[in-house]
Specification:
This protein is an alpha/beta fold and 501 residues long. It has a domain of 299 residues: Alpha/Beta hydrolase fold, catalytic domain (Rossmann fold). It is 32% helix and 13% strand. The chain is built from 16 helices and 13 strands. It has a seven-stranded mixed β-sheet, sandwiched between helices. A two-stranded antiparallel ribbon has the order 4-5. It has a two-stranded antiparallel sheet with strand order 8-10. Helix 5 runs antiparallel to helix 15 and helix 10 packs across helix 11. The N and C termini lie far apart (75 Å). GO terms for molecular function: galactolipase activity; phospholipase A1 activity. One of its GO terms (cellular component) is chloroplast.
Length: 501
């Protein structure tokens, strides 16, 4: 009768308290011979003893985990962040002034930290979004501007949110924007799509300038928006540049009868950027604009940067995108470069979203320009690329996992562990590995981290004073753009008329 011992990987060392099992003479001889052979190997005493006893008792004992895995498992009492370095004398290089040519492979530690910072700003757009289709505020941010970063534990970045961005949902856009089952919703036509934040005085001194960040939200699953988007190119600007129709629709759509999109997402963000740049330049400060986003959010970030370069001139503009699809054609890519926008795309090799649109018809066809001329309908990626590989991490599963490959938390985990294409996953990576499984099941089972664990307690229900489980009312400060009851009724009436038109 063989006994199997389960070893807890989180805090406890391998146990020496083995159970006794029946064994015959032959097995005892064989075990003795194997133990003798093991004793002759130049291995550690504890390993020889454990393996010898294991053979003699016919017990299954888990193999020792890789050192890097053991290090991560046993580091619960260590901070998840390394100390912040002063980058005030090199911020332009980190923001891509020279195209990141010598900073990506190997990855410069200061650049790694900045990428993680912007990635966490993008992740916040998911963590704070109300996805609950039974919520009267479905499609909004669960927290107010003043509470957002504190509620999500991102206060240590030392940025303050100045503006929320809303995008249309009644136009020809993906079905995932139309989730609410509640008729009297906070807004029938708009969804919270991101925010603008500004570095505070302390962070501005560390990074050498006043940094204005625009973070754009992506989608729940990549297949949702890809099936719904039009997959056709539409002109933008005065030249030959063209961009994907669906992306541009979300960015530009507006309607005067809606509550939150009387102005488009484009107009909302550009107005705020102009205000902030003017404010800080009048104070004599150096200012930068960094636009970030994941998936669809990465595409909107590129559109935002393209427009900002024209309407908010003489400010360094950088895009840091994660798992973003192609946005426009070759002419669009060239115009973006001519405008001085620096774009860093972080891509996971196994993720299929960055290959779209234009899986076949893409920038690789440029080599035939002499024959075909410039092809206006060919999609092209922009900027520099940092390519990551799921197989580099000892904590991630090797099986096929479309959702896990595309998850932003998977991206951030791989960035944190990346040193170079010639190096292994760094053992001193500090970002909590459990975050990877927030919205997927990418972590190896031996870590015993639950799948899809990030959710509201009891899925948002609370037990009231009468013992009944109900959806709680939001704190007044966290209700989207609070207005008086009379104003809300006017907006609601206009929206209802618009829907019936």
């Amino acid at each position: 009768m063989a006994a199997t011992m389960n070893i807890c990987h989180h805090n406890f060392p391998l146990s020496n308290d083995y159970q006794t099992a029946n064994r015959g003479p032959r097995s005892r001889v064989r075990a003795f011979q194997e133990a003798t052979q093991e004793a002759q190997k130049p291995s550690k005493m504890t390993t020889r003893l454990a393996e010898s006893v294991s053979h003699m008792l016919h017990l299954h004992i888990e193999k020792p985990k890789p050192k890097s895995l053991r290090t991560m498992i046993n580091s619960h009492d260590k901070p998840i962040l390394s100390p912040k370095e002063d980058i005030s004398d090199k911020w332009r290089q980190i923001q891509g002034s020279s195209g990141w040519g010598d900073l990506l492979d190997p990855l410069h530690p200061c650049l790694r930290r900045e990428i993680l910072k912007y990635g966490e700003f993008a992740q916040a757009t998911y963590d704070a979004f109300d996805f609950d289709s039974f919520s009267e505020y479905c499609g909004s941010c669960r927290f107010s501007r003043n509470n957002l970063l504190n509620k999500l534990g991102l206060h240590y970045h030392n940025y303050n949110v100045s503006k929320y961005i809303y995008a249309m949902s009644h136009v020809d856009v993906p079905q995932w924007l139309k989730k609410s089952h509640v008729m009297d919703s906070w807004s029938r036509d708009s969804n919270w799509m991101g925010y603008v934040a500004v570095s505070d005085d302390k962070e501005s001194r560390r990074i050498g300038r006043r940094d204005i960040v625009v973070a754009w939200r992506g989608t729940v699953a990549p297949t949702e928006w890809y099936e719904d988007l039009q997959r056709k190119l539409e002109p933008i600007g005065a030249g030959e540049a063209k961009v994907e129709h669906g992306f541009l629709s979300i960015y530009k759509a507006k309607n005067e009868y809606t509550r939150y999109n009387k102005s488009s997402a484009s107009e909302q963000v550009i107005t705020e950027l102009k205000r902030l740049v003017k404010l800080y330049k009048e104070r004599g400060e150096e200012v930068s604009i960094t636009v970030t986003g994941h998936s669809l959010g990465g595409a909107l970030a590129v559109l935002n940067a393209y427009e900002t370069a024209t309407l908010v001139p003489n400010v360094p503009i950088t895009v840091v995108s994660f798992g973003a699809p192609r946005v426009g054609n070759i002419a669009f890519r060239d115009e973006l470069h001519q405008k001085g926008v620096k774009t860093l795309r972080i891509v996971v090799k196994q993720d299929f979203v960055p290959r779209m649109p234009g899986i076949v018809l893409n920038e690789s066809l440029q080599k035939f320009d002499d024959i075909t001329g410039t092809l206006e309908w060919v999609y092209a990626h922009v900027g520099a690329e940092l390519k990551l590989d799921v197989r580099a991490s000892p904590y991630l599963k090797r099986g096929f996992n479309v959702l896990g490959y595309h998850s932003l938390e998977t991206y951030l985990h791989l960035v944190d562990g990346f040193v170079s294409t010639e190096s292994s996953f760094r053992t001193e990576a500090r970002r909590d590995v459990a975050l990877v499984n927030k919205a997927c099941d990418m972590l190896v089972e031996e870590l015993r981290i639950p799948h899809f664990w990030y959710q509201m307690a009891n899925k948002g229900l609370v037990c009231n004073d009468h013992g009944r489980w109900v959806k709680p009312e939001r704190d007044p400060e966290d209700v989207p753009s609070p207005t008086s009851e009379g104003q809300y009724n006017v907006f609601h009436h206009l929206e209802s008329n618009y829907q019936g038109a």
